Amino acid sequence: MSEVDLRRQVAERFREVNGDHPMTNADDAYVSTQFVTLDELCAAKRLDADETRQLMVNRRLPLPGYLRSDGAEMVPRDLFALADAAGGIDRLEAWFTARWEDPDVGAQEWNSYLSGQYVCLHEVRPTTIQRKDYLTSAINAAPSAPDAGSPHWHERLHTLIDELDILEPAFTAYDRLRFNGPTSRDTYIDEMRTRFPRLDP
């Protein structure tokens, strides 16, 4: 299959997952800072970019995190890190899904990983995915805690928020379009810091 056909298939699959939303100049600038083009990454690692596109189409590697407005496929710099940790592409799915005790949850997370939408983490690893899930659940539940509003509660809450802040990037306006609403940073970091400011020392 030609490079043009593979690029088209990747782009079509990307839009099936994310919808067809415009990328602004600000979006392009953000993703160019946070991500690298697929061609650049493959050249640096001496890998064939078209073979990588085929792996994406075949659901063996994640889709790009973004398509820049010029059509460039933007991927994380550590795109191949999990395959390396698993011992190769052929072992990646089994290795990844085994990080969850519940096979159904592992399969769901594998599908989410393949979507390329884990742009909510600086490093996409089973451990960081699980930690983010824990933190967002804990932050969401915090206002209902029996000691809500107490100094100790504020300290616990902001410890959770600060840890999530480290795990997550800034996001860009495009993300609010494709996710059809606020990002996890909007909801669990920025909004919670506004609702529950740190107490004065």
Quick synopsis:
By secondary structure, the protein is mainly alpha-helical.
Task: Characterise the protein shown here.
There is one protein chain. The N and C termini lie far apart (63 Å). The chain is globular and about 60 Å long. It has 11 helices and 3 strands, in the order H-H-E-H-H-E-E-H-H-H-H-H-H-H. The chain is mainly alpha-helical. A 3-stranded antiparallel beta sheet has the order 1-3-2. The protein has a domain at 121-201. 60% of the residues lie in helices and 3% in strands. The protein has helices at 3-18, 25-34, 38-45, 49-57, 81-86, 89-97, 103-114, 126-141, 151-167, 173-178, 184-195, and strands at residues 36-37, 66-67, 73-75. Helix 1 crosses helix 4 (49-57), helix 8 packs antiparallel against helix 9 (151-167) and helix 9 runs antiparallel to helix 11.
